[in-house]
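From the pipeline queue, job 12 of 40. The input is one protein chain; the requested action is below.

Action: predict structure.
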Amino acid sequence: MRFCIVGAGFSGAVLARRLAEAGHQSVVLDERRHVAGNCHTERDAATGIMLHRYGPHIFHTADREVWDYVNRFGRMMPYVNRVKALSGGAVYSLPVNLHTINQFFGTTMNPAEARAFVAAQARRDITEPANFEEQALSMVGDRIYRAFFRGYTRKQWGLDPTELPASILKRLPLRFNYDDNYFNHPFQGMPADGYTAIVAGILDHPGIDVRLGCRFEEAGGDFAHVFYTGPLDRYFGYQLGRLGYRTLDFEEVRAEGDLLGTAVLNYCDEDVPFTRISEHKYFAPWEADRFTGTVCFREYSRLGGAEDIPYYPIRLVGEKSMLSDYVALARRTQGISFLGRLGTYRYLDMDVTIREAMDAATATLERLAEGAAPPAFFLDPLG
């Protein structure tokens, strides 16, 4: 059978490859001039540094099958994400760990002492946090919250933390040891040749026809089924309204030598307009010493407009209501399935994106073998 897959990021590429290996043909469309979507990387012409053009992407997973899959198409190099944070004129390690706590309070506590100390700082009267701020106060108290979370969150989301769900903060770790590895997954790394090379390798199959610079709305063609990884609301012409996203603006900074001395430095103070700076040669520590120059990007977050690249789905009350209406509309539409970050309006890490695409391909092949069409969604976007 011949399918149309809209989007040449990880979702579309993994799905196309699985279908191709099962004997099916796919046309993969992407309106950008490159594959890999927001994971796109490329060598900087002036310095040779591998740049993450749409912001830093660090691969981490607990899924061995996904880890083996990406290593099939590219060589993953060891990389540990160690984030630094500037707050009140001092630099700390994130996530908040024993070193952060001792440095911030000027103490030398051991793990048990620090755990008891933070527990004493926490707001005990908040038993069921109703929002981000209450969740933070119930975990770490006012001082740590204001130093590391409040200002950064207001800049990142453009909202007061009392307007954000408590679930956002539940994902952030708090450690009572000196572990400053930002992630807690057994498999972590960075591709030696960048993410774009991996996605290009996945798409390199005679059963896959990749067409770049091609909008789905203008493509035409006769297909057995369409798999759409673009924005859900865009497919329906925004007839029910636009789902909200935060977008990012990047300000490039070039210099000789180093500027940060690390890959990522968060700026927690609200009076600093950007959220973080990333120094991209440090995303490839195995080669960083060979570059005499450096390329950094200041990152600014704002509400996305009609022409902006969508990064983070907002998913507050208004968006969830609109999403529910779009999901109902999609389920009434024949011949199309929605998947991926934009197709399901969910924030997804790369490993989850790959896993869901692998599972979608398996489900599709099973449905086809039964003579049935693939579903509108392989996972419930409202779940």
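Job complete. The radius of gyration is 22 Å.
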